[in-house]
Amino acid sequence: MDTSTFLKRSLLLQGELQKKAYPNASSLAAMCGCSRSTAMRTIDRLRYEFGVPIDYDESNRGYYLTNPEFSFASLPPGRDELVALILLSELAGMIDDASLQDAVSALWARITNGRSDVDHDLQHIRNRFSSEATSIAKLADIDLVRLLSLCHRGQLVVIKYRSPWRHDEDREYGGMFERLHFSDGILYAMFKDSRDRQIVLNVSFIKEIREVAELPAPPEPEKVESPSKPYWLEGFGIWSGSKPETIEITIAAPASRYYAAQTWHVDQEDLWIEENLVRRFPGIASPELTRRVLSLGRFVISVKPETILEQMRDDVQHLAELCKP
Description:
Elements: H1 6-18, H2 25-32, H3 36-49, E1 54-57, E2 62-65, H4 79-92, H5 98-111, H6 122-126, H7 134-141, H8 144-153, E3 157-161, E4 171-183, E5 186-193, E6 198-202, E7 206-211, E8 245-251, H9 255-260, E9 269-273, E10 276-283, H10 287-295, E11 300-304, H11 306-323
């Protein structure tokens, strides 16, 4: 089962509760192939947003139904689904098609039926929301439709690629695109090369794509092999080739309150030590992350692991040289 959606994770949890298997965040994460944080958010949404009567049993280290007679009805849309509808209406407005507008309006009316906390008039809600289309325009500039078509057809390609952070010259890869992932305004591609390695590429660094009938002979093995497992991460450090580790950044007040309202990573965990924010999330010591930490300036109290500090020292030393009179 594809367990990438909240609904499908909820169905798995429902089955475990009905079997009295005492599921918890760790067991749900293992079943769904998601992170423990994502599994915990699923449990919390069912418990607090949808009113499913569950509680934690310390002796069995898992959740159970406090009302054994509880019947799982079809889940109504929650906050995430309603936000998706608002975004859908904004995107649909870019297409001059009355039938599409009618379909979106009908969908809104159907799934919000009976929700007293939601205005049923889609037009009124849409008129109170706007968004920039810059990121969407970037997808058009890099020919998203062609890339998706190549993925779907399993077309063999040879690409020229250069990462400004990793490569001094163009590199050539032969293989096929497997899927695309859009995160933080950047489009990434899962690519399987001619040696069956799965690597993650920043699509904006692809210089050329040629469709081919067969792949050329693979080059000699590199000294450092990419890992067999590609690491997909939201936000900072999405690159393949480095195993993610726990990033921990402690931010002082008043900046701590400002950044507490921001989501840096889908699986971030925030802790408070008095007025200081301790933010933890999985990632790697990437240039994007280093720049984000440096932007905090004097409000940074501590940073872990040491690999990020090493990059920060190099950048700060360079900036210090530029600042000399």
